[in-house]
Design goal:
Strand order of the largest sheet: 1-5-2-6-7-8-9
Protein name: DUF676 domain-containing protein
Pfam families: DUF676 (PF05057), TPR_12 (PF13424)
Keywords: Endoplasmic reticulum, Membrane, Mitochondrion
Largest sheet: 7 strands, mixed
Subcellular location: Endoplasmic reticulum; Membrane; Mitochondrion
Structural class: alpha/beta
CATH topology of one domain: Rossmann fold
Family: Belongs to the putative lipase ROG1 family.
């Protein structure tokens, strides 16, 4: 792979004189042709060193301040292997371009591609979008000119696209059975290019799509992207698939040259007008679903599923190793971090499409925690797309996904589930099963199954989704990594701690590579590992972990990390507050109840002020307070003392309208409150909680389980005792007929482990 400078001659060019760089990329080599010869002969006529090369002889007249390069590469190696090779070769194109430019070069770039070379350009820009090393190249690319490139009119159906590009191989001498032919025909090589997300990225470029009047390989409809006229100009040239990008001296060729020069001059002029905006300090974040790092500890476990290994890719066992920024400080006090510490940076929610103003606005509102405004914007976008595009359209489905995601993030599981089910039902009618949008919906569905307690089903769905995403968009894509986190949580729910650690460790390593070690989402990934690798805050007797070196080290590291976050992203950032909450829970483990109480009250107050009293993170702080009182307020044999009940009742009030009582998280809370009242001989109050618990098990997979049988036994005991002994009624939540509840802020695992200490439930460990 190499770039050959055509203009100005290399000996006379200077980086300080040119204003734009232009790179021309050829397509598939004929079967028996030399690599270098094909790179040049794609653009010249007649073939050979004496041929006329319009890129060198004609184009400079309209782009005098440009450097023009010709890119040489072995296209059979690019298009004849597998998807990962194709992606790697696209990255090699980026590296070659990078090496031709100065550091921090902000001069615009134009790409010109013929046939499948245009697809390589598109994949390179996708790679640049996902890789901070090359993001600047994407940011300064302003124009694209495609000659007979098979775009398929923007059609995202893989197999029809594969058939189309295979025709190019046939025309260049490849036969059925050849590697190139078979790989192209299958079509999965180009799954990134065929997504609606890539269509959004195209909106930032000025595009020309040339098609040939005699091109019987790539018909006119397939040679255009289907973008609006202010983005894409579709131009007819006289010639076949091979000749339309060669300019000789005939009248036909000169007529073509006029069109080519004028259109390239147009995107050249627009490039000069645009102010490049490279992102040198922070990496541009690829299109993702917006995982926010919120801790959603899983409910109690079921026995491992025997067939899971068939669906879960193997990964070596590793010892969790956080990045360098997480290290226990020499001084455990809340002091200021060292002045030379690299700042933690980044946003929790990047825009789904950085070039779409509405997507950028949505991300800004999410990061500002203006969730009501987010909902209004998302509903408006969905209604517009549904009305103008119809429901069987990827834009409409993606808008529905965003609504479902926001509902899930803010604790409205029931609403989110309805939107996901609708979007999956509609999208399966017109999208392929492995379409990236369907895979995102499947991941969200899998997370819901985990929250509902269907851990085996969740693992099965998430493992399959992860494999499909790794094949379709790569192992380091943030959508893939979001699924890997969800799968790690499912493994943890099933009691497979080592599998969960391996998943989350791999995700942490990939996030560090893609986003940078000090990105705020990498910090959140570290907290994921700490949470599953240290005992739960309710594990064992009070203060039992005070000599555990792992817990001591984690507490010191968390303390230091909080200082760094507070200085870098502020004390009210969600990740900062999450770290503070975990610090309080670690203090419970160490038996330091005074500081634990202070920390947890502080985080509850700050979270409530920043995010609102109904936010899931606020409820996570409420549950942490309940755990604190369950450890420190025990009297006699009551493991769930009265001091815990106000916190747990507040949590349950929040749970019911958002998640209902059919999920394990709600059932755990009902059981704890029922047991607490029963142990204090408040049988009427206990009876009402157990009535709700028995009803909650009906129609679920736990109907008839040991948990359901225990709930029925407790209910009978309370009914008999209430009639026999009576007892004062409590007027708190659950005492009346209209008691309610709400979402759990990711606390199901804490409640489950607390029940498990009494042998009343199943632990996550």
């Amino acid at each position: 792979m190499a770039c050959r400078q055509l203009y100005p001659p290399p000996s006379s060019s200077g980086a300080e004189t040119h204003k734009i760089d232009i790179f021309a990329v050829h397509g598939l080599n004929p079967r028996s042709k030399d690599i270098s010869a094909h790179a040049w002969d794609t653009w010249r006529i007649p073939e050979g060193p004496q041929g006329r090369l319009w890129l060198q002889e004609d184009l400079p007249r309209v782009v005098p301040d440009a450097r023009i390069f010709l890119y040489e590469y072995d296209s059979k190696a690019v298009f004849g292997k597998d998807r990962s090779t194709f992606i790697d070769k696209a990255t090699e194109l980026l590296e070659t371009v990078r090496c031709e430019r100065d550091k921090k070069d902000t001069r615009p770039i134009l790409f010109i591609g013929h046939s499948l070379g245009g697809l390589l350009i598109k994949q390179a820009l996708i790679n640049a979008h996902n890789n901070p090393k090359f993001t600047e190249i994407k940011d300064v690319t302003t124009g694209l000119a495609f000659f007979a490139t098979p775009h398929n009119g923007g059609d995202w159906k893989l197999m029809s696209f594969g058939t189309l590009v295979a025709r190019v191989a046939t025309a260049t001498g490849f036969q059925p059975g050849d590697d190139v032919m078979e790989v192209l025909k299958e079509g999965s090589l180009f799954s990134d290019i065929l997504t609606e997300m890539w269509q959004h990225q195209l909106m930032k470029y000025d595009i020309i799509s040339f098609w040939g009047s005699e091109d019987y390989i790539i018909p006119p409809k397939s040679a255009k992207l289907g973008m609006p006229g202010d983005v894409e100009n579709v131009v007819k040239l006289n010639g076949d698939h091979s000749s339309l990008c060669k300019i000789g001296t005939t009248q036909k060729d000169q007529d073509n040259l006029k069109k080519i020069r004028r259109n390239i001059e147009d995107i050249y002029s627009k490039a000069l007008e645009k102010s490049p905006q490279p992102t040198a300090n922070q990496p541009a974040i690829p299109i993702i679903d917006g995982w926010n790092g919120q801790d959603r500890t899983s409910p109690p476990v079921l026995p491992p599923r025997p067939r899971s290994a068939q669906h879960t890719p193997e990964r070596r066992s590793v010892t969790p190793k956080p990045p360098a920024f997480f290290a226990p400080p020499p001084d455990p006090g809340y002091g200021s971090p060292e002045t030379d510490t690299q700042s933690i940076f980044g946003e929790i929610y990047p825009p789904t499409n950085p070039t779409d103003p509405r997507s950028v606005q949505e991300a800004e509102l999410r990061n500002a925690n203006k969730w009501d405004d987010v909902r209004k914007l998302e509903r408006h976008v969905f209604e517009v797309y549904q009305r103008t595009l119809g429901q069987e359209n990827a834009e409409t489905i993606n808008a529905a996904y965003e609504i479902a995601f926001t509902a899930f993030e803010t604790g409205y599981l029931l609403d989110s589930e309805r939107w996901v089910d609708w979007a999956l039902q509609v999208s399966r009618q017109f999208l392929t099963p492995k379409h990236p949008l369907i895979l995102k919906l499947n991941r969200l569905k899998g997370e819901m199954l985990t929250e509902k307690g269907d851990w085996e089903e969740a693992e099965n769905l998430l493992a399959g989704t992860l494999v499909d995403q790794q094949d379709a968009i790569g192992t380091s894509h943030l959508d893939t990594l979001a699924t890997e986190r969800a799968l790690g949580v499912a493994c943890y729910s099933l009691g497979r701690l080592a599998d969960a650690q391996n998943r989350l460790q791999h995700r942490l390593e990939c996030l560090s590579e893609v986003l940078g070690e000090n990105h705020v989402l990498v910090v959140s990934a570290v907290i994921d590992l700490i949470e599953i690798s240290t005992p739960s805050a309710d594990a064992g007797p009070y203060g039992a972990q005070r000599t555990n070196p792992k817990v001591i080290s984690a507490e010191a590291g968390i303390r230091d990390l909080y200082n760094k976050l507070k200085q870098s992203v502020g004390p009210t950032n969600r990740i900062t507050l999450r770290v503070l909450r975990n610090h309080g829970k670690l203090k419970i483990l160490l038996g330091d109840t005074t500081e634990a109480g202070d920390l947890l009250r502080r985080v509850k107050s700050q979270t409530e002020s920043t995010l609102g009293q109904d936010h899931p993170d606020t409820m996570a702080a409420v549950v942490a307070m309940a755990l604190l009182y369950s450890k420190t307020g025990s009297q006699g044999s009551n493991a769930f003392p009265a001091a815990m009940r106000p916190w747990m009742e507040l949590y349950l009030q929040w749970l019911e309208p958002r998640k209902g009582f059919k999920i394990t998280e709600s059932q755990n809370a009902l059981a704890m409150l029922g047991i607490s009242y029963m142990n204090d001989k408040l049988y009427f109050e206990a009876e009402e909680y157990f009535e709700k618990l028995v009803a909650a098990y009906q129609g679920t997979k736990k109907q008839g389980s040991s948990e359901a049988q225990k709930a029925s036994m407790w209910l009978k005991t309370c009914r008999v005792s209430a009639r026999a002994f009576g007892g004062a009624r409590n007027t708190g939540y659950g005492a009346g007929r209209n008691g309610g509840g709400g979402r759990g802020g990711g606390s199901g695992g804490d409640l489950a482990n607390l029940l498990a200490t009494l042998g009343l439930g199943r632990s996550n460990r």
